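User: Design a sequence. Structure:
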């Protein structure tokens, strides 16, 4: 086990000779979609749309928008062999990548870890006959134990994660099949479910934004796992299948369960439908898959933030970060689910946009470790976040996640062009080689 930890470092690029088949990261990404929040979003959509409309919304959001974003970030990881927090050093600079991007990644993954750990604690409480609304101490003990078990494979390293996903993903599919079966039976058959046609309370674009809000952070963390895959267009195009396929299934499952039972909380739904204990055990396994991804990414981002390049150091930070996620679960992050999604939808597309623009249009698909702090990236990040926030919550228009992405891309590229001509430095070196000989300010 110690040998596995030593090999799984952050700054050292993944070995090209050990690159895995595309099915390995695709399976891990599929596990990432085994998340209760995905089902909750599907249930929310069912409050405004029929199943046919929801399916069309998912095709646009997942098959078109999400797939492209994941494939691009996945290519960055495979091409450089490095995780997102390290790739960001090229565009943001080492200091900014460590403290701003690194902290954003830790916040993201610790939040997801906390939300899912709290849900797992609820599920295990049902199995052991504990009222998690009244017996808080017993629930907290179960939640802590769950968090440690969830984090264990990620602490050991990447190679241990793929085997757990091979077991947990089929278990999650069994949960979906069982849940849909009982929900449809409760509703009175498929005809009643398919005829569901509520009055919409959100717009079509608003529905797309909801779906992206649950997935958009993957535009940033995809490289954490594709760094172990082959840097080919074919592989990076196929890898997001794990997210798209499982996402379609889980979003639709949430919608069907909401129509059949009228409750988006999967634990309550399973209780109402009379699931036996094995159903909650399968739910626990399904949650484990997304927890592995969150826990592992915490360790990678924290290692980059604190400049730790050893497998044992990454493992220790993974443990500490996962315990932080458990703490969030204990203080009730599940009650602030919507607010958490707000943070994700506003921040992460802007960060990804800067990384995309830098990698493809400035560095010619090369990773170069840049020391310092790139203020152009800071400005582009603020503008991207600002536009995303305004178009989401003040003057709703279009798809805020995409607008945040493109605004940050355009502002970053334009800002770097201006900087290269006015005051070139180490960040503009690859743009104008002839000027760097006399004007570089390292």
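Assistant: Done.
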């Amino acid at each position: 086990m110690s040998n596995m930890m030593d090999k799984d470092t952050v700054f050292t690029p993944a070995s090209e000779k050990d690159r895995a088949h595309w099915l390995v990261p695709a399976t891990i990404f599929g596990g990432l979609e085994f998340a209760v929040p995905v089902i909750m979003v599907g249930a929310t959509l069912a409050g405004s749309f029929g199943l046919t409309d929801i399916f069309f919304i998912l095709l646009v959001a997942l098959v078109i928008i999400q797939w492209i974003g994941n494939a691009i970030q996945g290519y960055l990881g495979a091409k450089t062999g490095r995780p997102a927090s390290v790739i960001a050093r090229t565009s943001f600079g080492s200091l900014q990548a460590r403290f701003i991007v690194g902290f954003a990644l830790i916040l993201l993954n610790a939040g997801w870890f906390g939300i899912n750990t709290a849900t797992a604690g609820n599920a295990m409480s049902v199995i052991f006959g504990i009222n998690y609304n009244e017996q808080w101490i017993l629930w907290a003990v179960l939640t802590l134990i769950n968090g440690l078990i969830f984090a264990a494979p990620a602490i050991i390293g990447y190679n241990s994660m793929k085997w757990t996903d091979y077991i947990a993903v089929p278990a999650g599919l069994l949960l979906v099949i069982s849940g849909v079966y009982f929900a449809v039976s409760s509703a009175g058959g498929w005809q009643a479910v398919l005829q569901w046609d509520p009055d919409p309370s959100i717009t079509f674009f608003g529905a797309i934004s909801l779906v992206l809000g649950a997935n958009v952070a993957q535009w940033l963390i995809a490289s954490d796992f594709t760094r172990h895959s082959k840097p080919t267009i074919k592989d990076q195009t196929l890898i997001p299948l794990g997210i798209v396929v499982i996402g379609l299934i889980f979003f639709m499952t949430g919608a069907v369960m909401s129509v059949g039972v009228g409750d988006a909380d999967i634990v309550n739904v399973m209780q109402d439908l009379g699931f036996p204990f094995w159903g909650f055990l399968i739910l626990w396994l399904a949650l484990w898959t997304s927890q592995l991804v969150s826990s592992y990414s915490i360790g990678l981002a924290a290692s980059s933030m604190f400049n730790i390049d050893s497998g044992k150091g990454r493992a220790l930070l993974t443990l500490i970060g996962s315990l932080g996620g458990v703490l969030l679960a204990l203080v009730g992050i599940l009650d602030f689910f919507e607010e958490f999604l707000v943070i994700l939808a506003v921040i992460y597309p802007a960060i990804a946009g800067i990384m995309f623009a830098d990698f493809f249009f400035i560095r010619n698909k090369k990773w170069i470790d840049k020391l310092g702090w790139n203020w152009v990236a800071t400005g582009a990040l603020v503008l991207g976040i600002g536009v995303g926030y305004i178009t989401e919550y003040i003057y709703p228009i279009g798809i805020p996640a995409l607008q945040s992405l493109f605004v940050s891309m355009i502002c970053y590229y334009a800002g770097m062009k201006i900087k290269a001509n006015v005051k070139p430095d180490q960040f503009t070196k690859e743009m104008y080689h002839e000027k760097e000989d006399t004007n570089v300010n390292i």
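Residues 4-8, 434-442 have pLDDT under 50 and may be disordered. The longest helix spans residues 94-127.
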